Every structure is written in structure tokens, then in C-alpha cells.
Amino acid sequence: MPYYVLLSKLTAEGRKTVKENPERIKEVNREVEALGAKILYQFATLGPYDFVNIIEAPSNEVIYKASAEFGSRGTVKILSMPAVTVDMFIENMRGKR
Predict the structure, then answer these.
(1) Residue 83 contacts residue 3 (beta carbons within 8 Å)
(2) pLDDT in tens, the chain (97 residues)
(3) Whole-number pLDDT of residue 95
């Protein structure tokens, strides 16, 4: 199944929500999984993004649906990037796929 890196930046409203209810993060994770994706890793980070998520999903469509759904709420901005493992990258560079 394909991998994706999602970089999330909370809006002012999102920061307020997380401050008042930190468990909301886990609720959103369940919503992401209900759309057909699987969160493999999730990190809270310092810097330009608040969260880094490594997700497995069956298609780009699942990811852009999730990004549109959560972005439309006005609490988060998401940058989604498809990703491949380094081994897969090397295989592709060698022309084995």
C-alpha cells in the first residue's frame, strides 16, 4: 500500500481546540482511519509544522479526500506528499520496476 507524509499546521482555531481538548487529536486519527487510511507514525514537532504523520493509504484519492475534509474545517492546513521507501527508490532508479 502507498505511503504518504502529511505535514500539518494548526490554525489559531486548531490550537485553541487542541489546548482545550488534546484528546481531539486521537479522535481525528480515528476519522482518518474511517476514510481508509492507516496512521503508521505521528509526531508533534517544533518549527513550521505542528505534526508530521506517516500514513498508509490505498490511493491518492483517499489522501486528498482526508486533506480536503480536515482542511475545510478551518482548524488545520495540510501538506500531503506521496512517499516511497528508500529501497523502492533504489529499485526504481535501477530500472527493476
Answers:
(1) yes
(2) 899 999 999 999 999 999 999 999 999 999 999 999 999 999 999 999 999 999 999 999 999 999 999 999 999 999 999 999 999 999 999 986 5
(3) 85
| DSSP assignment letter at 22 | T
Instruction: Give the length of the chain.
Output: 97
What is the C-alpha separation between 43 and 54, in angstroms, rounded?
Answer: 9
Domain that holds residue 47: 3-93
Total tally of structural domains belonging to the chain: 1
What is the SS3 assignment for 30-97?
HHHHHCCCEEEEEEECCCCCCEEEEEECCCHHHHHHHHHHHHCCCCEEEEEEEECCHHHHHHHHCCCC
pTM beyond 0.90: no
Grid cell for residue 53: 504523520
CATH code of the domain in which 19 resides = 3.30.70.920
Give me 67's grid cell: 486533506
